[in-house]
TrEMBL record:
Gene3D superfamilies: 3.30.70.270. InterPro entries: Diguanylate_Cyclase (IPR050469), GGDEF_dom (IPR000160), Nucleotide_cyclase (IPR029787), Rev_trsase/Diguanyl_cyclase (IPR043128). The chain crosses the membrane at residues 27-45, 52-71, 77-95, 102-123, 129-150. The keyword Transcription does not apply. PANTHER family: DIGUANYLATE CYCLASE DGCM-RELATED, REGULATORY COMPONENTS OF SENSORY TRANSDUCTION SYSTEM. PROSITE patterns: GGDEF (PS50887). Residues 188-310 form the GGDEF domain. Keywords: Membrane, Transmembrane, Transmembrane helix. This is GGDEF domain-containing protein. Pfam families: GGDEF.
Length: 310
């Protein structure tokens, strides 16, 4: 969306007068490059390489430094001052806050003081006034804040289960698959656990759905307080949950889940699986599901044997 808006912004800029044919050619090339980026983003969606987007942002920031700090081209200075908050918004949507801040702030901290006190526009009609400088800083900071806030809210609404606060299926895919790829790349183990609550239907039938909702929330609170930093808690639906354990073997995940189960006020069953070379999350969850039902059958058999002996 931001790239499309920049494309429109650049097209409008083509109507301005240019100080040289070279600058005009660069403006046309920028429009062509931005159009190519918009088309590529539309085609690749989440598979679009972010390093290309970062290089594009660096190219625009370099042009900002050149025109605002080292030129007296009035049209380009005005254009770059208007464009800079859009670049900040663009980066805040695509990149983590730290990357955006450490890219935007140094450029602004160097270019603005230099252009005001030392640049070639000093003492001419093209010099940026205090109001322009304050407006640039204000709208740049606002653009970064809005971009990060909207992105965070968007991810929360699309990747987080509204009832429990655990990740949902979209969140599991968005965060679990990269964790699996990282474990494969660095040759480290990764395990998952699948669990569902025992007697959840009875809770809903006897005490109502509000009681069932409270039980699900309590389970997620207990899981989150018991797992390690970097582990994931995801709700598949109903009373089924998946936990992702990076840098963990199946045996270690089994011991961790037994410890968590032992300290839980609610009853639930679980199964575990460890990543194999050809795995994805779906195949791992399927094996964990089989392990869980094997565990349930074993526990049922043990209960039947104990009842028979008594």
């Amino acid at each position: 969306m931001v790239a499309a808006f920049l494309l429109v912004f650049y097209l409008v800029n083509l109507g301005n007068d240019f100080s040289s044919p070279l600058i005009q050619k660069l403006a046309v090339a920028r429009v062509a490059g931005t159009l190519a980026m918009v088309i590529t983003v539309w085609m690749l969606l989440d598979r679009f390489p972010l390093w290309i987007a970062y290089l594009g942002a660096l190219a625009e920031l370099s042009a900002f430094v050149v025109f605002v700090g080292f030129s007296v081209n009035h049209e380009q200075i005005v254009f770059r001052l208007q464009e800079f908050p859009l670049i900040a918004l663009y980066m805040s949507w695509l990149f983590p806050p730290a990357v955006t801040r450490w890219t935007i702030y140094p450029v602004m901290a160097f270019t603005i003081p230099y252009s005001v006190f030392f640049g070639p526009a000093v003492g001419t009609e093209h010099q940026s006034g205090p109001l322009n400088v304050l407006s640039l800083v204000f709208f740049t900071v606002i653009g970064m804040f809005v971009g990060h806030y909207v992105k965070r809210r968007f991810r929360q609404q699309t990747q987080v289960d509204a009832l429990t606060g655990a990740l949902n299926r979209v969140g599991l895919s968005a965060r679990g698959e990269p964790a699996l790829l990282a474990s494969r790349k660095h040759r480290r183990p990764l395990a998952v656990a699948l669990l569902d609550m025992d007697g959840f239907k009875e809770i809903n039938d006897q005490d109502g759905h509000d009681a069932g909702d409270r039980a699900l929330k309590e389970l997620v609170r207990h899981l989150r307080s018991s797992i390690r930093a970097g582990d994931l808690v995801c709700r598949l639906g109903g009373d089924e949950f998946v936990l992702v354990f990076p840098n963990t073997t199946q045996g270690q995940a089994q011991l961790l889940m037994e410890r968590i189960e032992g300290s839980s006020k609610l009853a639930w069953s679980f199964g575990t699986a460890q990543a194999r070379a050809d795995d994805n999350l779906s195949t791992m969850i399927l094996r964990a599901d089989r392990d869980m039902y094997a565990s349930k059958r074993q526990r049922a058999a043990e209960r039947g044997k104990s009842a028979g002996e008594s």
